[in-house]
Known about the structure:
The complex is a heterodimer.
Chain A: H1 2-29, H2 34-39, H3 45-54, H4 61-74, H5 86-121, H6 126-140, H7 143-157, H8 169-199, H9 202-209, H10 214-244, H11 246-251, H12 257-266, H13 270-298, H14 300-307
Chain B: E1 10-19, E2 22-31, E3 43-47, H1 51-84, E4 90-95, H2 110-115, E5 124-126, E6 132-134, E7 137-143, E8 147-152, H3 166-175, H4 186-191, E9 192-199, E10 202-207, H5 214-217, H6 225-228, E11 245-251, E12 255-260, E13 273-278, H7 282-291, E14 296-298, H8 306-311, E15 315-330, H9 340-349, H10 352-358, E16 364-366, H11 389-398, E17 412-418, H12 422-436, E18 440-446, H13 449-457, E19 463-468, H14 476-481, H15 499-510, H16 514-531, E20 534-547, E21 550-551, E22 568-569
Parallel strand pairs in B: 4-13, 4-14, 17-18, 17-19
Antiparallel strand pairs in B: 1-2, 1-3, 5-6, 7-8, 8-10, 9-10, 11-12, 12-13, 14-20, 15-19, 15-20, 16-20, 21-22
Helix pairs in contact in B: 9-11, 15-16
Amino acid sequence: MRQFIFRRLLWFFPVMIGVSLVVFFFIHMVPGDPVMVMLGESARPAQAEALRHRLHLDQPLYYQLVLFFSDLVRGKMISIFFAKPVFEVIRPRLLATFELAFFAMVIAVLIALPIGILSALRKNSWIDFLSRIFSLMGVSIPNFWLGPLLIILFSLAFGWLPVSGRGGISHLILPSLTLGMGMAGLLSRISRASMLEVLGAPYLTSGRARGLGEYRIILKHALRNALIPILTVIGLQFGALLSGAFITETIFAWPGIGRLLINAIFSRDFPLVQACVLVIAASYLTVNLLVDICYALVDARVRLWREG
Amino acid sequence: MDCCPYIPATKFTFQIIIHGGQTRLKTRKAKLSSRQRFFKAGLTVYCGGSKYLRESIELMKKALFIIVLGLFLAAFEACKQEAAKPLGPEISVGIEASPSTLDPRLARDAYAVQIMPLVFPGLFKNGKTLEPEPDLVSSYEQQGDRSYVFHIRQGVRFANGKELVAEDVRATIESLNVPDLNSPYIELAERVAKIEIMDKYSLKLELKEPYSPLLVELNLGILPAELARKKTQLETNELIGAGPYRITKWVPGTEITLSRNESYIGPKPYFEKINFRIIPEDITRLMSLEKGEIQLVQTPIPPDELERLKANPRLKVIAQPGTNYTYMGFNLRDPVLAKPLVRQAIAYAINRDEIVKCLLKKSASKADTLLSPRHWAYEPDVKKYEYNPELAKKLLDQAGYPARGTQGPSRFKLSYKTSQNQLRLWIAQAIANQLGKVGIDVEVRSLEFGTLFSDIQAGNFQIFTLTWVGVVEPDIFYTVFDSQSIPPKGANRGYYSNPEIDRLVTDARAAQDRSERKALYSEVQKILATDLPYVSLWYSTDIAVCDQRLEGFELGAGGEWTSLAAARWRR
């Protein structure tokens, strides 16, 4: 297992270098001058040149690339817009996004797993029909519509929850629900399909023959074996949430990394964009590594295969 | 339903009952009768089945119970917060985005400029007719056309208790010239030949050459000398001014909190705290206002929402003619647009009344010149372009672009660049449609703002629309229309060149007498209305929506929040 984790960690480096290169070249291809964004039109040409020189934007691209990696390794990347080290800017935003993504995931799992299991157990019944409608709605309803709708219902009509901002748990419910519903739709479909696949397996009949209770058979034997594809989707979705929560973050004024990244792109804050993408990529890789470890924990076959 | 015969199937009914604004979630459990209908009122979930199903249902029940309990707890917490929140000496204001910095030497974005006067007063501030009025200065004399003597008000104290003196003013102005600081206000420092301290509260400022907009530029926030001498951007705890408030908390992307400056010598503000909450989405900001989480917002407010807000008895809408000027710019290096007749035809072909009425919902008024009617230098007697498509067609014929039949190819094609803002896009499409009616085929290209701005600065456009925000100093004519101001040196983005305009705007810069300046700028406005390097579209109305109990709040000329220092809740 340790060897497996070590091998996976080694993969981090080429992936991160690849991501860095892609981001670096893409951001430099985008039209727009960070110096003019910073100084405005009233800037003196000499002043703009001086700033461009200070930010090394007047150097050849390969030189800027070397500087970028050098600054990255030394942790000295400075945001143009905030005039602070980029990781200092990103840290609170990343925590806020993690908080949101985690709760969205919890909500999605709490909703999707029971629905998926029930739907599989009652295949082709009206429960299954309703659950499929729920799934379809979950994946089809866009966040920019669901978010304001939830605000109108729970904040304005009922007055239960705050409209926006980050604070206590009450601030977290609506954005998490908005993000979680889409994921719940997808997860419930995956859970249903996965459960259906294992429900006809002979080992469940064998379990019943040995006198095991249905509860134990479903939750311990069937669900455990059905969990692998579900975990895969959870991992991928969690990664996607880290970068893709921009719309929800904007609607609910949630100070997350998605909003920071988009604003950094708008203001052509090259170091901040690069750092945000790297952090998101690293989070993605970490989550996927954790998912892989979970595979091994959940499924003995995977564990034995890796050890063997 | 294949119900197991020995297990009574169970029905759970959840009814969300909305009655007189009260909401209850009612849960009922009852024996199932086969004749019962599954859907009566509310949402009914029916589950029946064998033992393992029942266990699954029990699990679902627990999960559902936890979710519902969580929701109720959250609601309780929220209600508790609402109830506990006093309408006391605090106000929450919703703003669209976070300022990049609040260091007065560096801040130039609108969000910073609007907040800073509460913390960093300058020597002068903008008056109601957009003329500079003394703020930190008690009096001043002009000696010749290049020297000014300013007398600072005595007893003014910074938030750290230190008295504001002439040395602080000198250090702040001189700091703008520090190369590493990259101040966008470097031009001000470059104009100054010498600053001489005459006594503790007086200083003499000598300019290299006469420059009449000086007083407007002296609204620059003053810092304590020791902080002004720092060559880097100041940290939040170093942002110390002599205004009625001081910055006590700044969470980037979330909020900025100002607290009353107890050292302030002016009238004590009513609000002990002003909390600026950053809510980027317009609709969310307005919903927060309607719920009472914030008590004040100002432009941008989507025009579609205005009627609904006006109808809300808890809210008050404050409006005044604004200084934000929206225009259509032309690239005069383009062979088609270089012809004045074409530009005039375009001006006649745009139905501004229709756009103001239908798209802007009357939250704007038609413009004929860059300066708004409330400005002291506004010239009303300029050539006006009322909607006249027939005249537009005639002008295009005269310009050498005859019509090629009603259904045939257009007279010529234009590319129209605009931002991705939805309202801007609708406006561009409406204008394209109106120009199409006189035979000009317009392709609308909606670009991300950074790309749009970069294209405009590089001259990579034919026509575009943009807005000049908070037009206060008429010297803007120099920045925008002087032939020396072509980017990157200025904002003459359309490559307009007219020696007469160059002469007038340069003379106006140097003229010391207000009536002389007004006459020069009147002439400038008349020439520009004929030459049409811009088509003037409209002035946006400045709008604020607030809790109806707020009194004493007035809209600032450039959207400044200054009057919050004099505002209060109605008793």
